[in-house]
Write a structure and sequence with these properties.
By secondary structure, the protein is of the alpha+beta class. The protein contains eight helices and twelve strands. Strands 4-3-2-1-5 form a five-stranded antiparallel sheet. Helix 1 packs antiparallel against helix 2 and helix 6 crosses helix 7.
Length: about 280
């Protein structure tokens, strides 16, 4: 075979192979658009049936991955690769990958269990694996949580499933826990009554259950009040900050003295006489 014949055969092979490559690229692009379109239709269908958004995202991820695997197999078949051999190769690769990436499969399994047991859903405000925030997505391997300071945090599903989960959105309302320091000379019953009346006027504070204001503990400055209004979950931070303002305004309007820690320091002078230094308030 002379050089001319070799060149002709090579040209034919390159042309044929090039056409197949172009066909595969076209097939990939068209199929990707069709898959995206199918996923959009599936999302609309799920939403019309009022399926939970958490389950929708999880199912669409599985469907998308499955369709893309089928697409890869189809493209390999277009190139003449035996799909049965590829399936056997894929199964062997799956076993090898499973052994090497056990953690990845554990995350996948944990994601499935999170879908089944439903400890939370998309939109819930939770604390888990050391992260507090709103769940934005529950994926195949990870869960996306947006923290209150607007930082998107990606947490492995297995880490969430193995940890405690606090779901602040599970119940219709929650308690806001605050404290208020009283001066030791203030009548605590009067302060409690004033605070209850003031807090009850804060917007979005629930009247049933009614706000709790009781003595929690004591320190050197005086009694410490536990101030605990209740509110719906979406108003937590508004009630939290407004209650702090109400505590400040109530004590100021009542003319209560500023709480201060009282210490008496005693010492001995060189002539054997004990000197007692009175509290700062008594000096001034």
């Amino acid at each position: 075979m002379d050089l001319k014949q070799i060149s002709l055969v090579a040209s034919q092979l390159l042309t044929l192979f090039g056409l197949k490559i172009l066909g595969a690229i076209a097939l990939w692009l068209i199929a990707q658009r069709l898959i995206d379109f199918a996923l959009k239709l599936a999302r609309r269908a799920f939403r019309s049936q009022h399926v939970d958004p958490t389950l929708i995202n999880y199912l669409l991820n599985i469907i998308g991955v499955t369709l893309r695997i089928i697409l890869v197999v189809a493209i390999l078949g277009f190139f003449g690769v035996e799909t049965t051999s590829f399936a056997a190769l894929l199964a062997g690769a799956g076993i090898a990958i499973g052994a090497a990436w056990g953690g990845l499969l554990a995350n996948f399994a944990a994601g499935a269990f999170l879908i089944v047991f439903r400890p939370f859903k998309v939109g819930d405000f939770i604390t888990t694996a050391g992260v507090t925030g709103t769940v934005t997505e529950l994926g195949l391997f990870t869960t996306s949580i947006n923290t209150p300071d607007n930082v998107l945090t990606i947490v492995a599903n297995n880490k969430i499933f193995a940890d405690n989960i606090q779901n602040y959105s599970a119940n219709p309302y929650r308690r806001v826990d605050l404290v208020a320091q009283l001066h030791h000379e203030v009548k605590h019953n009067e302060a409690i009554a004033l605070l209850k009346a003031k807090i009850s006027q804060i917007p979005n504070v629930l009247q049933n259950p009614a706000p709790d204001v009781e003595i929690q503990t004591f320190n050197f400055a005086g009694p410490v009040l536990a101030v605990r209004p209740y509110c719906n979950n979406e108003y937590y931070w508004q009630v939290y900050f407004d209650t702090n303002k109400a505590i400040r305004e109530t004590f100021s309007e009542a003319g209560y003295p500023i709480p201060e820690y009282r210490y008496a320091v005693s010492g001995s002078s060189g002539n054997g006489i004990n000197n007692v230094i009175p509290p700062l308030s008594e000096i001034t």
